Each structure stands twice: as structure tokens, then as C-alpha cells.
Amino acid sequence: MKTVVTTGEIVVEIMATRIGQTFLEPGPLVGPFPSGAPAIFIDQVGRLGQPCGMISSVGADDFGTINLERLAGSGVDVSAIAVHQGAATGSAFVRYAPDGSRAFVFNIVNSACGLMAMNEAAEALIARADHIHVMGSSLFSTSAIAVMQTAVDRIQARGGTVSFDPNIRPELLAGSMREALEWVAARCDLFLPSGAELFLFTKARDEDGAVAELLAAGRSAVVVKKGGQGAVFYDAGGRTAVPAFHVEEVDPTGAGDCFGAGFVCAWLRGDAPSDALRLANACGALAVTAKGPMEGTRFRSDIDAFIAAQAEVAA
């Protein structure tokens, strides 16, 4: 089986408990939960049984410990996650609006994540990797970008592949990030945008035109995530659409990251697009059924049981 790696932020997430709550006054919160978009992604990859690891940094504190223990327990190689004395693990406070949108207050750049750098353990993990998944949210600093670019260059030089999920948070968007996003977009094999992210790197403003432009520019495949409407896969062979599984949503955090994990693992195994989308949709659906960014990630046996149960209901 191919080994998947990712780089980027590891944080704890602390969440408002009331819809419409603000951070302008005291209010009830729940957490801390292990989090960070690439950490959620790789946690789900590990639970799917795919060999995997992550390059990142945490502080020598309780928040770092709960992340390391969670990832290791899911089967993730955490040897390249550096632990820094005197630096705090990153954090994200999230609140929910009545329309379903979320707003974040992040401490990433000035946390232990900001100390991310290539070291011997990171070099060793990259040396045995076959695929790297890049999250746009992880391009938060020059050091994080440098680590990502080194990993992409070395893995691709050995014939490995790259997937890219823009996953852009307005709160993190900075000048250097746009350039880094374009750098990854030009090199990725598999592009996994959500909604309007499809048009970030195209002149076309309709879905078919944008996809055609991306494939002509060298992408092997494009997967457009459509939330409750499912997802669509495009490659040179055509278009495949698979509807979403309908579940009761508890917390949307991490759904796209888990979807990406399911699709990347299936794609690397050579599964048919419809099967890969079905697995990805199941991972994304289950992700929203629990409160907390990683609380909805599942092991493969649970996901297969969910898909089978949904098929029985549909029949």
C-alpha cells in the first residue's frame, strides 16, 4: 500500500456551544478537541488502514499531547511531529452563525506550528512517502510553505503524486499564501476544491469550463465537493457523480478533510471513481455526526457498515 503524508497545522479546537454566540462577551465553550485540517485528514487516512504520517510541530503541553495520542492511536506515524519546549500548541476558537457558517480565531503562526521545519525525522518520512496531500490552510507561514514545497518536490521527483485541497480560511489568507496556492495548484495531480474554490485558478467561471481548463493544464483528475449534493469526479475519461449520504448534522467541522482522506486512499488503490466517491461521501457524512473535528472519523469497518446500511435503506 502507498504511504500518504501531509504537512501543516496541528491545533486544539475550542467551540462555542450556542448558535449565534460571539466572542465579544463571555459564553459557554466546549473542548479542547484535537484538530487542524491536515491533522483531521491524516487521522482519517490512518483509520482507513493506509500507511501514513505527518510533518508538523506541537508544544510540550497538554494540547500537544492529546493531538499526538489521538493521531498515534489512529495509526498515524507521528515521528516527524516535533515537540517544542517553551512554545504553545496552536489553537482555534470557532463560533457558529444562524446560517450555518463558521468564524474562527486562530493562533497558528505564533504557536509551535510556526516553528515547523525540515529535520531528520521529516526527511526520513518524506523518503518513504508515495503521496503528499496539501491543504491550503497549511500554507500559513514561509516556514510551513518551505516544508511543503520540499516534500512535494522530493516526492514528485521519485514518481510520487500530489493531491491538493484549497481549504481556504479567510482568517488565514495572507500575501504569501496566494503564491503558494498557485505553486501547488500547478503541480498537483488530484485537485479537490469545494464550491467556488474550483475557480481559484481558472479563467472559466462555469464548472465544465473550469474543469476542462484544469485538466488541460495537467491535472489528472478533479473532484468537486458539493456538500449535501454529493461530489463529482472528472478526468480524461469523463464525469462521474455520486449523491451524498443524508445524516443528521451535529458539527460540520472536518467533513471536507475526511472526504478528501477517503477519496485519496481509494484513488491511490485504483478504485473506480464511483466507488472512491462513495467511500469519500461516507467519510464526510460520518464526520458531521459527532461534535468535534476528529470525533467523526471512523475505522474502515465502521464506514463499510454505514455504506451497507444506507444501501439497505435505499433498497
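[next item in queue]
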Amino acid sequence: METTGTTRSPGAALAALAGAQFTVMLGTSIVNVALPQIRSGVGLSDSATTWVVNAYGLAFGALLLAGGRAADLLGRRRILLLGLGVFAASSLAAGLAASSPVLIAARAVQGLGAAAIAPAALALVMEVFPPGPGRGKALGVWGAVSGAGGAAGVLLGGVLTQAWGWPWIFYTVAIGTILVLAAAAASVPRAPAPVSGRFDLLGTATVTVALTALVWGLTTARRTGWSDPSVLGSFAVTASLFAAFVLVERRHPHPLLPPRVLRTGRVAAGNVLMALLGSVWIALFFFLPLYQQQVLGDSPLATGLGQLPLAFANMLGSTLAPRISRRIGATASVTGALLTEAAGLLWLSRISAHGSYAVDVLGPSILIGLGLSIAFVQLTALSVEGAPVQDAGLAGGLVNTTRQVGGAIGLAVLATLAGTATAHAAPHQPHLEALTAGYRTAFAISSAVLAATAALALGLSRRRTVTPASDRPAPQPAAHH
């Protein structure tokens, strides 16, 4: 069986794996701009419209750990190809949907496919590129496509919706996914034999339902408020199931989340920091397009084009991240990147209801893109480096889970605070001024969160030096069993 050491074209494999990650990020953001057209196209209510976004995020976030463990036990390449097939088919079904239940169900299945793709693809990148400068560059590409996928989704969503209608956002994703599937099948090497062990069905079911209840409660809280009985009930279910999960994991001979994963390297620290970064990341791509459309009056197409500078800055930062880390060290690069992004968000907190894209959005977008990309690359490396080989898929699933769950928590909290600021300003200010006050609040708090994350990163590093993949010497190859 072919191993990663005999990969004929690592570049082609990386292109396919990066394409898979780009597809996942695209699926997250491409519908945002098109929501008004989707709502009228299939007759969605206000609450159902939000579930076009939430169904994908809910299934994705809840099933990532299961997807990562399945990749380890069943084969990462196999799970990647299966996930891409599910993603393509569900995207086509979403484009053909003529009713809201079918569309929302298709989006949930898309999330299922994404939960298989993301951890398997990241684990395969770590297999194809052993520790050393090559892995650092590969993770730089990974970071570039991850950030660019979010921005490109807004752009493509605006272009396709305005040109051909909302179904084409899903048709385009389906076509792109099929191309990525073909490329992955041709270029991604067959990995070593899957690790031995039994799938922890009870632990998987417990944590999946717990994560589902948590994300559902958070997304519902944005609409109904934190004191709503259904929200409080979902949080109670979450707490109970997480407690049950801990008990199940202690007794299972092959637990879903083995303690060794969190005890090696800086996996635990990396995931904490990634959750905090995610809490700001997802909220940014929620609030910024709203400000552009609702306050500045930009069209969907103009809003999408407005994301290009952020996307280009993101790609530049991701490309430079390994070089910056080698020159100034991982600790300084992570801390500096988080502070750079915090500065950009602080700048955004000064937006005006009578401003313009050039004055209020362009400059902050470039700072945010640079900081976000460098921090993401470094924290991804931190979160998977040192994890045992047999748990590489699980480590990839874990870091994606913490980012998604952190994003859900951050968006719910920030949306509540922004709504409160808008409601407080509404009786005294015009509508656009009140909306802008809410967005300014969200951006200011996001900046403060990132500044605190930078301080935490510095503190964690002092206890143990954080060394990313690009800084470490390559170990001697070990035999695979």
C-alpha cells in the first residue's frame, strides 16, 4: 500500500486538499448575501431563513469530532472522498429545492459532508508533508484558502445571485466539489492502514447531541433572548450530556477523545486560542456584509467585491506566516497577528452611518486579513502538532470543532450585544445611526476579545515554548503498523 513517503506530487495533493478546505469554507459563507432572494424563492419565514445558515453550521460543528475519528479508524482518504461526494450531492439538492424543508435538510446534509471533509483533509496534509519547512508552507496554503473561502463565498454569492439567481450558488458549489473530488482521487496518496480500535458509538452520540444542543441554544438565543425557556433547556441538556460524555470516555477502552490527545504538544492550548479566534472570525463575516448592505446601501455584488481586499490580505499573510515565524518565533508571530487583527477591528468600531467603503472598511479589512491569516496558520499548527499519529484526524476534527463552537458562542453573544446597543439607540437616533451603533459595539468587543487572546497566548508560551511545524527539525521516519 502506498504511503505518504512515496507521494509522487505533493504539490498536486496539496492543491486538492486545499480545494477541499476551500469548498467547506465556501459552503459556510456563500449563502449569506443571497438570503433575501432564497427567502422569496422558496417562501421561507423569518425563522426558517436563519436555518438555511444554521442547519449547515449545526451539522458541521456537531459532527466534526465524529468525522475526525471516523477518518482515523476507516481511512482518511476514504472519508475525504466520501465527504466530498455527500457534499456535492447535497449541494445539487439544495439548488433544486422547491420547498423550505427540502432546502434546510439539504443544507444539514451539506454540513455532514463538511464534517467528514475538514478533519480528513487536514490530517492528510500532515501526512503528506512531514515536520519541517515544507509543512510550514503547506499550512500557509491551508490558511490562505481557509480565509479566502469565507471572503470568496460572499463575492460569489453576490455575483451568482445577481446574474442567474440563488440556485446557482448551490449548483456552482456542486460542480466545484465534483472537480475537487476528481483531483483528490487522482493525487492524494493512499495513506497507511487505518489505526486499530473500535468506534466509540456511545461517546460519539453523546457529544454530538451535546454539541447540537449547545449550537442550537446559541443560535436560538440570538432570536429569542437568553432567558427563553427553550434556550435555557438546551443549555441544561448540553451540560448534562457533556457530563455524561466524560463518564463514558473514562470507561471506554477506545474513547472518542483519548486523554493523550490533549496531553501531548500544545494541543489543548491551541484549541483554547482557536476557539477565541473563531468567536470573532465568524461574527466578522456576519456583521461586515450587513453594515455594507444595510447602512452603506451596497448591492450584493458590491458587497462581495468589497471582500476582495480582505481576501488578498489573507492570502498574503498566510503565505508569509511560516517565514515570519522562523524569523521572529512562533510566540511573537501569534501575538503580533492577534494584535494586528484587534487593531483592525478597533478601527472598524469607528464606522459611521454616513461613511463610505473606502474610508470605513478598506483599511481595517487589510489589517484584519493579515492578522487573521497569520494567527490561523500558527494556531492550526499548534493544535495538531504533537498529536499522536493515530489521532491526526481527531486532532483536525477537534480544532475545527473549537473554531466552530467558539464562532457560534461569539456570534450569539455579539449579536445580542449589538441588538441591545441598537435598541438602546433607536429611540434617540435615526434608524441607520442605531444600526451602526450596534455594529460598532460588536466590532469594539471583538477587538477586546482578541487583545485578551494575545495576552493569553503570550502567557501560555511562557510556560512552554510554542514551536510550529515550520520551526521543528524533521524526526526520523517511523514504521507504520
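[queue empty]
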